[in-house]
């Protein structure tokens, strides 16, 4: 994880982002075990964002073909894949749904709700966070990570899968069991 991130045009980019997703997911579960729910929510969000970066890169050619303009195609390459801007995650997940990743925007919504919870904590009034208690947020951290693990498992044949990735995936699965 401490190695520099490969450029999105390099072969190892997808694997690096998947490893980042799994490491962040493991940290989220570690934080939950220690009762640090806001930290866990932040790590779960980061895990989802890293997964989306890997998926965006895997589907880049399909996304560029579906893009409505040359400007949008350039933006996908220069900003969306390397940065996955938080404010554009909803739209990016909808684009990924259009190229075959059904249900992704619903899970992205959950990740964005956890991102809000990280910054605002529990909010019984529902003005700043969708979670009225720590327990609600903790449950969503676990369900988001379960979904992430299943999705990573499903695309591992499309990435340059390594022993390091397999080990990280196994560790997260063990923590979820």
UniProtKB/TrEMBL annotation:
Pfam families: PaREP1. It comes from the Archaea. This is PaREP1 family protein. It comes from Pyrobaculum neutrophilum (strain DSM 2338 / JCM 9278 / NBRC 100436 / V24Sta).
